[in-house]
């Protein structure tokens, strides 16, 4: 199945950006990125992450903001499917 | 009239810890100080005659039937108004007392119709009983003098009748309305012989302020105020205690029965959540359970354009299971899922999530709490450590400052609102944050100190400015914070909120609330003694719902208002089992007890118990299910007790998703909006037809007891079990108590819970385990569940749903007392007499600008869609804001609401939609299509020749 057929990835971009807007208040960038990565890992299905990745790979300017983009990169790098329990 | 199984001790219990010993008719008895002589006597089984006294109400001392003799006291004091004293010697029976009592009764009876044999109260009438008790044998004053025997009946209320000819003017009804309900709708008008009960300004009950709670009916000792069902059906012969299936207050009721027929529902005086009170829904609106619209036979069809076909249970379950398996084989394991409901019991919800995780093999399970209180779970878990409210309801009686945010308790949580109002009448101070002037802002003997009338969507801006005042004016409870909270998190938060940009002066532009009001409210909350926060969907249903919940928790921690009685963070849950459905693991990312599916230890525990491997990745949330359906990846859905097509936002998006699926299985009482898109219909059972438990907003687990057989043959948990067995995952429960035992085995906060234990304690507030064997009324005492409380930084992020020239108004949504949620139940009762359509509230200024008058049809258009409602022009809403309820599907309130949602939980932003309103003369295009589609579906149903309960 193709990853972004009905344009569903746009709502994923919005979801990721919305998460980013909460964590951007963290004084340290590192904490913000970690918070977003953890949130996505705890609440998104694997398929949703894959779709967002596919969307990013295909389209240049996706509207995904800097912090969530960095968080997604980190998630992909870590490959760790599961999150650390206890963190928000 | 009191329940047939309750004993009335005459006056309320005294809470004094001091004990007093006295002698009554030669018998020694020890009771708490402040107890009345009447109650002390009743506790030793000495019955003193009485009429105006009842333990539901404070003593009044008007009928003079309860006179006693007390050694050393002059005259004959009334035992209901005389408190006990140490060494007191009381005589309750002698010739003198008997003569006086007989004289009193003679006067009452001389103006009372003697139609006992045909009276609805016959056999359970206190006047009749007292005539017998005092040995009344003759009445010397005849009926020839003036009397009230021809007084007319008031039958305006659909649920009860007022027969003035039988009234003895004891004023129990008036006091019940004042003390218990707090509506103050009744008065005794006139004096002496002319005195009589009157509703409001002497109008009919229906035209008065009366909210039909029934407290007066319950308090009346005669047949003057009687339930119509009692008049029709006669006295009940047995009674079964159960729990209301409507709102999150979770009132306990005695279902008074004649065989399998409910005669009336009487709120349970021993009920821990409601103490014998109720609202119009729980007490009266149960007719839906036997409504002719109910479907009681299973049905299937292969396409939604096909007529429904009645089939056997075997065929329906077999078809559903084979479809689910076919879909999984074709589209993959994750292509199906299920949705449970807050209207289901704990056991039912637990079973549905078990079926999905273990039987379907994925985590695609979600619940309707997604669209109401999911931010509560998220926000409270991350700050305090547990996804639940911190108090019991009774805690409000120790609050000094009550802060109500985005909740409308008198409509949404009426019985708790009555308790809150009682506390407010005692002098507690009230702060309300709400865009609308809810009833609580100004009601009899209650005025809010501060009404923070904010613009919808600016909650976080408001809470930050309140926090700013508390932090910068030195109002933080530093000791509490130092001892109980994570200091680095506090410091970070303190720095954030003290920033000038969070000051009330800076924020007033955004919130619309004058800075001086915010400062006043913050000072009152932080400095007024015990501060308790109560909040509702006006907090959660926003793009920053979770942020606001955290903001509330921050505020409570900073002011030291957590961890004892009278304080706390109290989410008012909408539906009966919102708390329970969340506790039972119906969110896609967590097992029962809020434990993440990625936690290996927990997952292995469940894998061991359930005997299958389980996924370690979260599944789809409801809105993600819709997206996946539209992407062609999600094809099968099992929905138990939920109506997503009506209750979820952006209806057209939802129905497009539903239409794209290949097998939708709906288990419900009625052909609800979602069922119109279904392929399998499994007829569910009402709360009267099954055993189970509900968990209310206080974390209180109460029993739901079966009072009649399921109309469709199976209780809902049995249907889920049938489906599970058919998809190949065996389940063999024979009673829901076994499901609860399994929950208790697998959930640390439930280890002490069992049906036997609930029977013993009446109800249990979780956590209930070795540490808290009787449950936990107040959480976080001494230590937060997560150890140290955590402050989180809550930046205000404006919603993307912005007003502009095209959509200049903000639409916000809410509910009303008489209707419940999507209205599937209450719309099928006489409650429609109070509210038979959703209306658009609009400020006179906005209405005038648009040439809209009261009652006009108004088109409301948003970026998502448009609909038409009738206008109600009122200053309740502020200029620029319009408001509606969503109890009727044809209103299409959710056709207008958008896909915006809470960043953390995707709880929809129902409370903020930019709209335009214009006067129109016809329904919207959507409404026309809706009507057409509904009519087609009704026809497809009729052709099936299924069903319908014979009454
Ligand atoms: S209506 Fe009933 S409760 Fe009210 S005054 Fe008359 S008898 Fe008493
Ligand atoms: S039904 Fe409730 S609100 Fe109405 S008069 Fe009786 S006590 Fe008051
Ligand atoms: S307050 Fe809620 S639980 Fe109580 S009777 Fe009314 S609807 Fe039922
Ligand atoms: S019962 Fe005591 S005066 Fe009426």
Structural account:
- Chain A is mainly α.
- Chain A has one domain (10-76).
- Chain A has helices spanning 9-23, 29-43, 46-58, 66-78.
- Chain B has five domains: 19-133, Roll (Ubiquitin-like (UB roll)), CATH 3.10.20; 153-290, Alpha-Beta Plaits, CATH 3.30.70.20; 327-372 and 578-765, Rossmann fold (3-Layer(aba) Sandwich); 374-571, Dimethylsulfoxide Reductase, domain 2 (3-Layer(aba) Sandwich); 809-920, Barwin-like endoglucanases (Beta Barrel), CATH 2.40.40.
- In chain B, the strands form ten sheets. Chain B has a seven-stranded mixed sheet, with helices on one face. Chain B has a six-stranded mixed beta barrel with strand order 32-36-33-35-34-37.
- Chain B is an alpha/beta fold.
- Classes of the chains: A mainly alpha (88), B alpha/beta (951).
- The interface between A and B is medium-sized, with 28 and 41 residues.
- Residues 176-177, 181, 183, 185-186, 210-216 of chain B line the site of one iron/sulfur cluster (SF4).
- FE2/S2 (inorganic) cluster binds next to loops of chain B.
Main sheet characteristics of chain A: none
Overall 3D shape of chain A? globular
Number of helices of chain B: 30
What pattern of helices and strands is seen along the backbone of chain A?
HHHH
Mean pLDDT of chain B: 92
Mean pLDDT, all residues of chain A? 80
Oligomer: heterodimer
The CATH topology label of the largest domain in chain B is Rossmann fold
What is the strand content of chain A? under 5%
Radius of gyration of chain A over all CA atoms, rounded: 12 Å
The end-to-end span of chain A amounts to: 32 Å
Q: What is the CATH C-level name of the largest domain in chain B?
A: Alpha Beta
Low-pLDDT runs of chain A: 1-6, 81-88
Q: Radius of gyration of chain B, rounded? A: 29 Å
Outline the biggest β-sheet of chain B.
7 strands, mixed
> What percent of residues of chain A adopt helix (DSSP H or I)?
55-70%
Low-confidence stretches of chain B: none
């Amino acid at each position: 199945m193709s990853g972004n057929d009905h344009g569903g990835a746009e709502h994923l971009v919005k979801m990721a950006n919305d998460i980013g807007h909460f964590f951007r208040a963290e004084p340290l960038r590192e904490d913000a990125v970690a918070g977003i990565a953890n949130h996505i890992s705890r609440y998104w299905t694997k398929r949703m992450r894959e779709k967002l990745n596919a969307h990013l790979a295909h389209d240049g300017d996706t509207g995904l903001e800097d912090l969530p983009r960095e968080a997604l990169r980190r998630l992909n790098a870590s490959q760790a499917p599961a999150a650390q329990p206890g963190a928000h | 009239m009191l329940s047939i199984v309750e004993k009335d001790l005459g006056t309320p219990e005294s809470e004094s810890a001091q004990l007093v010993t006295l002698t009554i008719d030669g018998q020694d008895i020890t009771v708490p100080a402040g107890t009345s002589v009447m109650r002390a006597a009743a506790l030793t089984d000495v019955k003193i005659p009485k009429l105006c006294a009842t333990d539901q109400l404070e003593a009044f001392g008007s009928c003079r039937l309860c006179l006693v003799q007390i050694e050393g006291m002059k005259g004959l004091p009334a035992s209901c108004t005389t408190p006990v004293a140490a060494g007191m010697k009381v005589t309750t029976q002698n010739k003198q007392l008997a003569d006086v009592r007989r004289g009193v009764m003679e006067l009452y009876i001389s103006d009372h119709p003697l139609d006992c044999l045909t009276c609805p109260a016959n056999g359970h009438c206190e006047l009749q009983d007292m005539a017998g008790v005092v040995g009344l044998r003759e009445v010397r004053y005849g009926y020839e003098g003036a009397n009230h025997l021809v007084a007319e009946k008031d039958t305006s209320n659909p649920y009860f009748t007022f027969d003035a000819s039988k009234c003895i003017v004891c004023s129990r009804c008036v006091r019940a309305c004042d003390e218990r309900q707090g509506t103050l709708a009744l008065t005794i008008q006139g004096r002496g012989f002319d005195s009589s009960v009157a509703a409001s300004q002497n109008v009919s009950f229906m035209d008065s302020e009366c909210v039909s709670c029934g407290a007066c009916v319950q308090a009346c000792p005669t047949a003057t105020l009687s339930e119509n069902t009692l008049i029709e059906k006669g006295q009940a012969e047995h009674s079964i205690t159960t729990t209301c299936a409507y709102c999150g207050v979770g009132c306990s009721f005695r279902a008074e029965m004649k065989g399998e027929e409910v005669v009336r529902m009487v709120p349970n005086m021993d009920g821990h959540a409601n103490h014998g009170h109720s609202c119009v829904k729980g007490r009266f609106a149960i007719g839906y359970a036997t409504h002719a619209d109910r479907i009681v036979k299973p049905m299937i069809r292969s396409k939604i354009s096909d007529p429904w076909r009645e089939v056997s249970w075997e065929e329906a379950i077999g078809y559903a299971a084979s479809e689910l398996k076919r879909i999984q084989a074709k589209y993959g394991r994750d292509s199906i899922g299920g949705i449970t409901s807050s209207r289901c019991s704990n056991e039912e919800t637990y079973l549905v999530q078990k079926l999905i995780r273990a039987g379907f093999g994925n985590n695609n399970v979600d619940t309707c709490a997604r669209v109401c209180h999911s931010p509560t779970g998220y926000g409270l878990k991350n700050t305090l450590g547990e996804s639940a409210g911190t108090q019991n309801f009774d805690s409000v009686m120790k609050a000094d400052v009550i802060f109500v945010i985005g909740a409308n308790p008198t409509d949404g949580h009426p019985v708790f609102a009555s308790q809150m109002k009682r506390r407010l009448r005692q002098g507690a101070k009230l702060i309300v944050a709400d865009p609308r002037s809810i009833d609580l802002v100004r009601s009899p003997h209650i005025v809010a100190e501060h009404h923070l009338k904010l613009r919808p969507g600016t909650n976080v801006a408001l809470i930050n400015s309140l926090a700013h005042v508390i932090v910068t004016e030195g109002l933080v409870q530093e000791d509490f914070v130092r001892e109980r909270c994570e200091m680095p998190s506090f410091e970070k938060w303190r720095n954030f909120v003290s920033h000038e940009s969070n000051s009330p002066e800076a924020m007033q532009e955004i919130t619309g609330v004058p800075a001086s009001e915010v400062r006043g409210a913050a000072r009152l909350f932080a400095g007024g003694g015990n501060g308790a926060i109560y909040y509702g969907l006006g907090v959660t249903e926003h793009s920053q719902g979770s942020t606001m919940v955290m903001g509330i928790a921050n505020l409570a921690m900073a002011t030291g208002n957590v961890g004892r009685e009278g304080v706390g963070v109290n989410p008012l849950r909408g539906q009966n089992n919102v708390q329970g459905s969340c506790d039972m693991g119906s969110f896609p990312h967590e097992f029962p007890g809020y434990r993440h599916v990625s936690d290996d230890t927990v997952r292995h525990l469940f894998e061991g118990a359930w005997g299958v491997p389980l996924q370690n990745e979260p599944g789809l949330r409801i809105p993600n299910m819709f997206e996946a359906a539209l992407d062609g990846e999600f094809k099968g859905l099992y929905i138990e007790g939920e109506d997503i097509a009506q209750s979820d936002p952006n209806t057209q998006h939802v129905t497009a998703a539903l239409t794209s699926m290949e097998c939708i299985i709906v288990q419900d009482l009625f052909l609800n909006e979602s069922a119109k898109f279904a392929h399998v219909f499994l007829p569910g059972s009402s709360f009267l037809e099954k055993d189970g438990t509900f968990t209310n907003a206080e974390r209180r687990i109460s029993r739901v007891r079966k009072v009649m057989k399921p109309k469709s043959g199976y209780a809902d948990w049995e249907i889920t079990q049938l489906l599970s067995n058919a998809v190949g995952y065996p389940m063999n429960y024979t009673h829901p108590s076994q499901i609860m035992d399994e929950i208790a085995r697998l959930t640390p906060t439930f280890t002490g819970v069992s049906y036997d234990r609930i029977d013993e304690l009446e109800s249990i507030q979780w956590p209930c385990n070795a540490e808290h064997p009787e449950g936990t009324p107040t959480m976080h005492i001494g230590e937060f569940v997560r150890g140290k409380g955590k402050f989180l930084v809550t930046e205000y992020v404006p919603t993307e749903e912005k007003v502009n020239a095209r959509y200049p108004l903000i639409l916000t949504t809410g509910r009303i007392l008489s209707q419940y949620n999507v209205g599937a139940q209450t719309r099928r009762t006489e409650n429609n007499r109070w509210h038979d359509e959703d209306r658009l509230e609009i400020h006179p200024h906005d209405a005038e600008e648009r040439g809209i008058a009261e009652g006009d049809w108004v088109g409301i258009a948003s970026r998502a869609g448009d609909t038409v409602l009738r206008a109600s022009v009122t200053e309740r809403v502020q200029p620029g804001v319009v408001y509606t309820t969503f109890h009727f599907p044809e209103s299409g309130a959710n056709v207008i609401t958008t896909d915006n949602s809470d960043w953390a939980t995707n709880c929809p932003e129902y409370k903020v939609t930019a709209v335009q309103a214009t006067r129109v003369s016809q329904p919207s295009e959507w409404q026309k299509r809706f009507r057409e589609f509904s009519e087609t579906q009704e026809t497809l149903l009729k052709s099936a020749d299924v069903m319908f309960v014979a009454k």
